[in-house]
Structure formats: C-alpha cells, structure tokens
Specification:
By secondary structure, this protein is mainly alpha-helical. About 55% of the residues lie in helices and about 5% in strands. The longest helix has 30 residues. Bound molecules: tryptophan.
C-alpha cells in the first residue's frame, strides 16, 4: 500500500456532505496501517476564527474522525500545528515555487474573480495565507513522503500543485522529495443539500453530523416539494437524491419505484429519509459525545499522533535543510 495522507480543515461544524463526500472515502481508503490523518488548523487560519473556536473545532473534528471509525493505533491522527516544522518547509518550498503557479490556484482565482465581478480591487480582503495555502498543503504532503493523497475533486488541483512544488525543488536541489499522486474516488457523488444545491455551509443547506433525531426531522421537513398527492407519480427530487446517498441501495431503488408509480407521499418520503440519516449518524453521535466528554484523553491521542508525525517528517526536513545549505552540514 502506498503511504497516504489526508488533511481536513477544522472550519465549521462538520456536516453530512463533509462526511459522505470526504471523511468516509478517506477513511475507507486509509484502512491500511500507517495512513496519516491530520486536522489542518494552520490552513483554517486563513479565515481568522477566534482562538477558542480553533481549539474547539480541532477537538470536535478529531472526535468526529474517531467516532466514524478512524483507528488511531493503526493510523496516525495529529494536529497540523503540532508540527511547526511544516511552516519552515513552507517557506523553503515557496522559494522554489513560481508565483504564477499560485496565481492559477482555484481558491485564489475564485476570490479575485469575485472581487472583480463586484467592482472591487482583485486582491481586496485576500490574505497572503490564502495565496500561499497550496504551498503549505504541499509541505503537509511532502514532509511525509506521501505517495497517495485521497481527496475530493475540489482538492485535485492542490495535489497537482504539490507535485509541481516537489518537481521544481528536485530540479534545483536534486531528488530529495517524493512526487505525490491524488487519489480521487470518482464514485463519490456530489452530496445534495436541503435546497438541492451541493451541501455546503456557505449555502446554509447542510445537515450537521451532530444533529439529533429531532433536528434531522426538522431540517428534512424544510425540503421544498410540489403539491402532488401521494397517489400521483413524482419526479426524482432532493428527498430522493439524498435518500440515494444515505440509504441502502435496495431501499433507494424501492423508494424510486414508489416515486415513479405514485406509491408514496412526500411526508412519508421525508420520514424515510430522516430515519435513514438517523441510522447513519446515531452510532457515531454517541461515540462522539463520549470522546468530547474527555478532552484530556483526546488531546493525548493527538499528542501521540503528533510525536509519530514529527518522527515521520524529521528526515525530510533534515534532507531539505541539508540540500539548501541551511544549518551546518
Ligand atoms: N486543503 C484541504 C481542504 O481544504 C485540506 C488539506 C490541507 C489537505 N492539507 C492537506 C488535504 C494535505 C490533503 C493533504 O480540504
């Protein structure tokens, strides 16, 4: 198995779209021993949340990953900022990375395009951290000589940038860095939110992973439907689309058939959907609550992960320093 690494930003309460689109596929791909996971709190700083929020979200995300099945003995789970050497690596790598490469990164381009579309200066409100984001991500990956990076489609370009970053460094200083590869699971669909658009915090259409049965029912009841009575055939809609990604395949096929033949009302379909989401989330919700009740234990898990991760990164950092003439040989 190739060495794999996955980072997840601790921004916002994790929701069902994050779980199905990113957390679950990453956990599945990382069944192998030695896969690394980290909570990307340095990356989260580009949106400058409060210190308290950062710490809370780090613990919450770590607990979420464990609750959904991350095995912290077989795999390594750590907090990114416990490896400050990543920032050193970021600086060194930024000196061999073309600025133009970063100009072309999607996240930065989207921010400047949005500014221009609203008649503002291109870089207004864009911090340099957002611009340098892909170099830090390259450091995350390259530090561990990771070969495979399981990511969603939206992060594929960042891994390609990490490849370019490694190749430019190696061209100048010799073959020091391992060139990684993105692993994108094409079967993972876009997870629809309550309004039918992609589930995303920025659209406010998400179902938080922490939602209890009542909140799930309340959120699902918000899905807008037409006024067809139960006996009338129905078009596939948001209820059915979400049901397809959370229910067993046979159940999804069954509901689809009942939609087509006019064998189900929207109220019943929503109840089925809420029930399926509840069954998917309930076991992890309990485990998550237990973990959050003992933050000290969770911090110890992260500290053990950090010790392993630092040991894993150390040879790369040493080789990069030696190759570039930093420190005495
Ligand atoms: N940029 C990723 C995201 O927003 C998070 C991330 C940071 C990451 N560093 C990484 C993912 C390294 C994979 C490998 O989702």
């Amino acid at each position: 198995m190739p060495r794999t690494i996955t980072g997840i930003k601790p921004t916002g309460r994790p929701h069902l779209g994050n779980y199905l689109g990113m957390i679950r596929p990453a956990l599945e791909l990382a069944r192998s021993d030695g896969a690394m996971f980290f909570v990307a709190d340095y990356h989260g700083l580009t949106i400058t949340p409060s210190a308290q929020e950062v710490r809370e979200r780090v613990l919450d995300l770590a607990a979420t990953l464990i609750a959904f099945g991350l095995d912290t003995e077989r795999n390594t789970l750590y907090r990114q900022s416990d490896l400050p050497e990543l920032c050193e690596l970021t600086w060194i790598l930024s000196c061999t990375t073309a600025k133009g490469l970063l100009n072309r990164a999607h996240a930065y381009k989207a921010a400047t395009a949005d500014n221009l579309a609203h008649g503002r200066e291109a870089d207004q409100g864009v911090n340099a951290g957002l611009f340098n984001y892909p170099v830090l991500m390259a450091a995350d990956i390259l530090a561990h000589r990771a070969e495979a990076v399981p990511v969603g489609r939206d992060q594929r370009q960042h891994v390609e940038i990490a490849r370019d970053v490694a190749e430019s460094f190696n061209r100048i200083y010799g073959p020091v860095l391992v060139v990684p590869e993105a692993v994108v699971d094409e079967r993972v669909m876009t997870i629809p939110g309550l309004d039918g658009r992609k589930m995303s915090k920025s659209y406010g259409n998400q179902i938080p992973l922490s939602a209890g049965p009542d909140e799930i029912r309340r959120l699902v009841s918000r899905i807008v439907t037409d006024s067809r009575p139960p006996s009338e055939p129905k078009e596939p809609d948001t209820i059915l689309a979400l049901y397809r990604v959370v229910a067993a395949e046979a159940d999804a096929r069954d509901l689809e058939r009942r939609y087509r033949t006019g064998g189900v009302g929207y109220a019943e379909a929503k109840a089925l959907l809420a029930g399926a989401i509840e069954r998917l989330l309930a076991p992890a919700r309990r485990r998550h609550a237990e973990l959050m009740a003992d933050p000290q234990a969770l911090k110890e898990v992260l500290a053990r992960g950090a010790a392993r991760a630092r040991a894993s990164a150390a040879p790369t950092v040493a080789a990069v320093r030696a190759a570039t003439g930093l420190g005495w040989a």
